[in-house]
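=== Discrete structure encoding ===
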Amino acid sequence: MQILYGIHPVEEALKAGKRRFDHVLVARERRDERLEAIVSLCKELKIRVRTEPRETLTDMAKTPSHQGVVAIVRAQQFLTIEDVLKPTGSPRLVLALDGVEDPQNLGALLRSADGAGVDSVVMTERRAAPLSAVAAKAAAGAQEHLRIARVVNLVRSLEDLKRENIWIIGLDERGTMDYDRFDFTGDCALVMGREGEGLHDLVRKTCDHLLRIPMAGGVSSLNVSAAGAVVLFEAYRQRRNKAAGTSSATDKSAGAASKPKKLKGLGS
């Protein structure tokens, strides 16, 4: 079992209906519409609700930022890379995380992934942040609506995606193409690297393209979660425009037509 805390994580887990709830604790000191809505939903789903002092919830959550609600739930079930490879009937957008270690960054990336219409998320099992209560709080419950796979070897998984004609796109400050000049309307996987260090060498070499975010100031790069949000929502913008029948801002002369061409010297 696992602990979830916070209004959004608990509410989204209840709405998604993918997890078994043991019980939910609510703070005796808090009474408002948002908390009452969670209590009502628990009653509708026949989930036990207990009222406890706020200090009890703080002890369980190991943080005072639980917003007056803590849930005991079954741990989230992860997919395999084979599940990710299954066709969806439309161009796939996959987010692959190469050892993101900060749970706040993980949660923020998952929140952006859900908002930008990502089909699946691929995470490494080792040397990476677990999908903990802290990450779930930062994700505001978005992880409940995402297809998430955990893999042992990210490079091997990226190669599997390649065999399904999914382009592997790494975000790296050493990239040679600006992110907004690339065509994201086809099948592609965006790979985000570690905080401060970026992509591992083997992961970088596996990428078909390396993109960068141009920076106007003195800092050379964005935080991984901020960078992920920028690129994911550019992908979403292009896909939405294509679905609406309007042209994207893709620079086709840069080699990013409807089917991207591989750049010399960047991966296989």
Q: What stands out?
A: The chain has nine helices and eleven strands. Confidence is low (pLDDT under 50) at residues 248-268.
